[in-house]
Amino acid sequence: MNLLHYLLRNVLHRKFLSLLTILSVTATVAFILLLSMSKAGVEQGAEKGYGPFDLVVGAAGSETQLVLNTFYHVGAPTGNIPGETLDEVRGNPAVDQAYALTTGDHYNEYPIVGIDPGYFLTRYGDQRLSEGNLYAKTGEVVIGAYAAKMLNIRVGDTFSGAHGLVEEVHLEEEGREHDEHDEHDEHESFTYTVKGILPKLNTPDDRAIFTTVDYAWAVHGESAEERDITSILVKPATLQAGQELRTSLEEEGRVQVVYTSKAVADVVNLVDKGSELLEIVTLLCVLLAAVSILLSLVAAAGERSKDAGLLRLLGKSRAYIVAAMLGEGVILTGTGLILGIVAGHLGGYFLQDALFHYAGIQIQPLRISGDHAVIAAGTLATGLAASLLPALRMYRLDPLALFKA
After folding, report:
1. Which residue of 39, 175, 176, 264 shows the fewest CB atoms closer than 10 Å?
2. How does it sit in the membrane (predicted)?
């Protein structure tokens, strides 16, 4: 009997148990693949998240919070710093480029960020916008590619922002109702006009709305003396120059100067610690899949002992019987592996927008990486290892003793 035909017949003979085994492998592979894509997305986002701006100047507080809010548009700012700090930073010969940033408002949960248009040239080079042009006057905005898609906004559209990172629907304190109502009126009376849509940048800037630095001052009617800024993005001339700038500014005690790469590394290390727990869960899933394969093949070995004994009496070798058992394990594992890779990529494709919106993790669901080879090799090795015990049992089978019984 042809070995492949014999293998397929055995797998199809026990459809339900074979299907359960394949599904357990599929779920495990898909979960591992999604975890791998998410981890790669975090690392790539951390690497490209801040561009050439090695320093950020902001109010005293958490360094991580300052960097996440400034570059990743996550969380609240640490506070404001005096606007004249920008002149001091730009006047320092250690600085190549510096841009003030203002935040605090949003439109449908997408942050409105005030920054000089030169920021885009410094960070991304001379890229063409998908539509329209960069802003030039107060009230004009450009929108990140992802935000424009989700908000269904086109060039020429207008909208009004709201205060805070997420608009509050219910007030916790009745005493604040009057102030919140006045603030709401201020935002409703200020209209933004969309002048352009940015190309896809594959950074957190894809989900932000950008306008002039003075937008917050215009919305709230602040005087020249009150015009604070949220932070300053600094591209130092050299790393040594960056250290000199940090020392000189922090001596004044009004601001903190943070090395962006260090704060991002702290976040990545925190994510790595969290991923260790996920790796434990992944290991448990792998063990369950291996046990599923083992139980399926042990049950199969018990059912097929007579068939195997008869094949031996008809002249088939021990190697043929062992190959049949190992081959069945490989078929079940390989089928689950292929389906798991497909399911993992499909899951990544359908979850990519949700992951980017809620966590800022940008995954590439159609990208093939070296992890695929590792996952495939590990899955097949697990399947073979689980097949060894029932294969050894069949190898030791005495066909004459079985026939007499």
Report:
1. 175
2. Multi-pass membrane protein
